[in-house]
Amino acid sequence: MRLDEKHPILISILFNIVAIMVKAAIFSNTLSRAVYSEIFHSIGDTSNSLTLYIGTRASRAKPSPRYPFGVGKALYLSSLFSSIILGGSIFYMIIAENLRIYSSAEIHVIASGGHLYWLYMLALSLFDTATLILSVKMMRAREGRSIVLAPLVLEDLMGISGNIMASASLILSNTIADLVFSSVIAFITLAGSIHIGYRSIEALLGHSAPKEVIARIVKISLSIPGVVDVNDVKTMLIDPDRYLAIVQIEVKEDMTIKEVEEIKEEIVDSIKKNLPEIQYLILDIVKPKEPAKSYVSLLREIKEI
Q1: From 65-79, 256-270, 273-287, the region with the lowest mean pLDDT
Q2: What's the pLDDT tens digit per position in 38-82?
Q3: Residue 270's domain is classified under what CATH number?
Q4: Residue 1: inside a domain, yes or no?
Q5: What domain range includes position 284?
Q6: Residue 115 has what pLDDT?
């Protein structure tokens, strides 16, 4: 069976739900603040995986007259709301509470059995490792889009680091160390939440395609006989890992309409073949104008993206 990008996401959701229940049971027996932070960490991971799943489903919906470019950006909208809710919860329920406990010298006791529970916490890292390996394997084999799987890889890496720190806290069974590990886990989760929110805002604003893709469009266009120059390339994200490109090119002034149409068809076919992420392509073909070799300055600007 050929794996689809939704499979590691669904596995991640299942594993995180199990992890939440296991961590809640460990916390009820140890009262470890680090484990408490890890519960929220897993809730955040579950929320992130759910938004990724929603996005993969929405991005496959057919365009309609009302939404001519599809509704794939629903991924980023739900992801943004998720990151805001998670970030606020982490700050109020973990970071602020840890500061209150520390400043009031309130002592919470980690149960003596904590040195055994660390094995369960560490075992949970196997879940994250499994989805991490699967996601990386699919990305390398180009069986899944990096825009979907890359956040899952980040989620797994943070999950592994959080579980290791919570395990260390249970082994030490020290109140101060527990508060420190709890706060570090909270800040790691908060950093991940901010990253996801920033990525979502960029996507909703319609950021450009990667500079490598834009440069490739310029080079492909210039490789077609009859093309004199590439004046401008504008790209915009319209769907997860799918872009709209508007390219203005110059052709020889003495060319016939038929020759221009042939060049247009060749450019479109070549770009669509070599750059499948360009879903929509608009060509603006004009006569040569000053300054010459505009593509030189255009490629220079692309490097600064």
Answers
A1: 65-79
A2: 888 888 888 878 877 877 777 677 888 888 888 878 778 877 877
A3: 3.30.70.1350
A4: no
A5: 211-303
A6: 60
SS3 of the chain: CCCCCHHHHHHHHHHHHHHHHHHHHHHHHHCCHHHHHHHHHHHHHHHHHHHHHHHHHHHCCCCCCCCCCCCCCHHHHHHHHHHHHHHHHHHHHHHHHHHHHHHCCCCCCCCCCHHHHHHHHHHHHHHHHHHHHHHHHHHHCCCCCHHHHHHHHHHHHHHHHHHHHHHHHHHHCCHHHHHHHHHHHHHHHHHHHHHHHHHHHHHHHCCCCCHHHHHHHHHHHHCCCCEEEEEEEEEEEEECCEEEEEEEEEECCCCCHHHHHHHHHHHHHHHHHHCCCEEEEEEEEECCCCCCCHHHHHHHHHHCC
Give the pLDDT confidence of 183-239 residue by residue, as tens digits. 887 787 778 778 888 888 888 888 899 999 999 999 999 999 999 999 999 999 988
Instruction: Specify if 288 maps to a domain.
Output: yes
Do 199 and 71 belong to one domain?
yes
pTM: 0.69
Residues 13 and 42 in one domain: yes
